[in-house]
């Protein structure tokens, strides 16, 4: 098979992680960040050709996220940067580009409040919220209009948020460095926190937000209950550390991207842990 390459012009100062890449709803385009010229770029997944280059940040773009889509498949794209800001963009599914007020793509909102480079970001158009974390800094909750609502107070010893996930019900799960995980409500109340014995690289929530999947340096994919962070299941260990996780559209298959460059597919049945299916009446 012909290998398609996104190029070698990524910044040497940035560790490329799974949150540097998002796809559009139809998976026809891949949006990638981390380029030395402070841009992020839209690629065609069919040809790997650059469709659009977006400028707006004054530092290297460090992370990306996409919202749910509306009926027309329009959605928000949000970008975090080493310039300590988060920008909100509009993806137009009809023109298949990021659009602005005029000819040039311009951000819908600029979100401020961080004093260190932004490390992770997540957006929900349904809830109208953007949650972002910065290196050795806080996790901030903004509205999609750019208003800062609150900062999520981490437990003692939980420093530097690395990955963030948010469910439709508004439960926010934050993975801090050294495998520390905490869950919060969107109102800022801390639900639970756990210290894991693995350095986690990625986390993912099921569509209903009930279950959390994590992968890390030990090569083990684990399933947790989101609300109480109870560990439910661990899949067999993989050959190398896990760098990314994704669920198939029908929520039956869990895909893990390994540091070796291979992909492992697990069959996952969320019903086996659901209380309604466990108690046979």
Automatic annotation (TrEMBL):
Domain of life: Eukaryota
WD repeats: 193-224
SUPFAM superfamilies: WD40 repeat-like (SSF50978)
Record keywords: WD repeat
Start and end residues of each Neurobeachin beta-propeller domain: 3-272
BP GO annotations: intracellular protein localization
Gene Ontology, cellular component aspect: cytosol; membrane
Molecular function terms from GO: protein kinase binding
Matching Pfam families: NBCH_WD40
Protein name: Neurobeachin beta-propeller domain-containing protein
Source organism per UniProt: Rhynchophorus ferrugineus
């Amino acid at each position: 098979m012909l290998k398609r390459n996104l190029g070698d012009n990524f910044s040497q100062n940035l560790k490329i992680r799974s949150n540097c890449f998002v796809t559009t709803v139809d998976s026809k385009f891949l949006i990638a960040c981390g380029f030395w010229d402070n841009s992020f770029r839209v690629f065609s997944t069919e040809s790997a050709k650059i469709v659009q280059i977006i400028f707006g940040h004054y530092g290297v773009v460090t992370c990306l996220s996409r919202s749910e889509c509306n009926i027309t498949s329009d959605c928000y794209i949000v970008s975090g940067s080493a310039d300590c800001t988060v920008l909100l963009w509009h993806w137009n599914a009809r023109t298949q580009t990021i659009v602005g007020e005029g000819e040039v793509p311009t951000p819908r909102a600029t979100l401020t409040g961080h004093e260190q480079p932004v490390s992770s970001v997540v957006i929900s158009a349904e809830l109208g919220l953007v949650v972002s974390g910065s290196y050795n800094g806080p996790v901030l909750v903004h509205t999609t209009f750019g208003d800062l609502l609150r900062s999520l107070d981490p437990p003692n010893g939980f420093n530097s948020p690395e990955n963030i996930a948010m469910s439709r019900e508004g439960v926010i799960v934050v993975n801090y460095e050294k495998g520390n995980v905490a869950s919060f409500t969107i109102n800022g109340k801390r639900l639970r926190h756990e210290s894991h014995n693995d350095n986690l690289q990625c986390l993912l929530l099921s569509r209903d937000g009930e279950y959390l999947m994590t992968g890390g340096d030990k090569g083990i994919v684990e399933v947790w209950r989101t609300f109480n962070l109870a560990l439910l299941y661990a899949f067999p260990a993989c050959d190398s550390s896990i760098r990314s996780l994704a669920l198939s559209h029908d929520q039956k298959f869990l895909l893990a991207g390994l540091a070796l460059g291979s992909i492992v597919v697990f069959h996952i049945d969320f019903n086996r842990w659901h209380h309604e299916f466990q108690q046979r009446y």
